[in-house]
Design goal:
The protein has helices at about 10-15, 20-25, 40-50, 90-100, 110-120, 125-135, 165-170, 175-185, 220-225, and strands at about 60-65, 80-85, 135-140, 155-165, 185-200, 205, 210, 230-240, 255-260. It is of the alpha/beta class. α5 (about 110-120) crosses α6. The chain is globular. About 45% of the residues are buried. The model has no long low-confidence stretch (mean pLDDT about 95).
């Protein structure tokens, strides 16, 4: 049963989401939160495998719903000339901007940078500098809109990434499908959509504050993507193995990562 009586949409995040507590709880080390076992390690490894081979790249990458985090684009950043990060909540965008400008007290991403560089044989300082040089915009986005970046209209991207965003932003499957339709419109023909998300989750907690999630199955996601004409190239799953109830911060049944391609014209 969901911990949240009413679905916590973007406006709730604007008022109640603690960006710094979120990063401290879930991204202070490569393993992530201790209750979620190897959730983050799995995600970082999947994203590294997708991008480190150099098969995917291009002019523009858009990360939709970055939160206060930069982890989703670390493995991808050197393969794209321009990167757009985004989030609905003002505080999340402020934290990203503070990190990009190296302001005093900004969030510390060194452990995650080091983990990616250990996987890929890179220098953390070089990777950090590369990402900061390539991020051109940090924009407000709302995936419930037909154009998530309204009133801006972005040039089509070679890659759209979204991680742990849609299931937290969309209160029902109809809204979720509309959101994916909007993301698909951000892609150029032949571009790729890279998604990270959770299956079977109804809530997660940042400290004691609960946020709701749309409970999704793998078939929900696959049917939606295929209905948009996207071809799924890979769908990787890490199921939960611990006893039910042993996770105090979320109730996800599996974390997934997928790559889907938009047809070329």
């Amino acid at each position: 049963m969901s911990e949240c009586m009413n679905f916590t949409e973007g406006e709730f995040y604007q008022r109640h989401f603690d960006s710094r507590a979120y990063v401290k709880n879930f991204y202070s080390c490569p393993r992530g939160h201790s209750d979620e076992k190897d959730f983050l390690t799995f995600v970082l490894g999947c994203l590294s495998r997708v991008f480190s081979a150099g098969e995917h790249g291009g002019q523009r990458l858009i990360d939709v719903g970055s939160g206060p985090s930069i982890h989703s684009v670390l493995s991808a950043c050197e393969h794209y000339d321009e990167i757009v990060l985004s989030d609905f909540a003002d505080n999340n965008r402020i934290e990203i901007e503070k990190w990009l400008k190296n302001e005093e007290g900004c969030l510390d991403w060194k452990p995650i940078l080091q983990h990616i560089c250990d996987l890929e044989g890179k220098s953390p300082s070089d990777l950090e500098a590369s990402l900061k040089q390539r991020v051109k915009k940090v924009l407000k986005c709302d995936v419930r809109l037909d154009n998530p970046f309204y009133p801006h209209t972005l040039e089509p991207a070679d890659c759209v990434i979204t991680s742990l965003c849609l299931e937290a932003a969309c209160k029902d499957i109809q809204t979720y499908r509309r959101a994916l339709h909007g993301l698909n419109k951000l892609l150029r023909p032949g571009g790729i959509l890279v998604m990270v998300g959770v299956l079977g989750e109804t809530f997660y907690k940042v400290d004691e504050q609960s946020f709701s999630c749309l409970r999704l199955s793998q078939s929900d996601i696959e049917e939606t993507l295929r209905g948009l004409g996207l071809s799924i190239q890979e769908f990787n799953l890490l199921p939960v193995e611990e006893e039910p109830g042993s996770n105090s911060v979320s109730d996800f049944e599996a974390v997934f990562q997928l790559v889907a391609r938009k047809p070329s014209d």
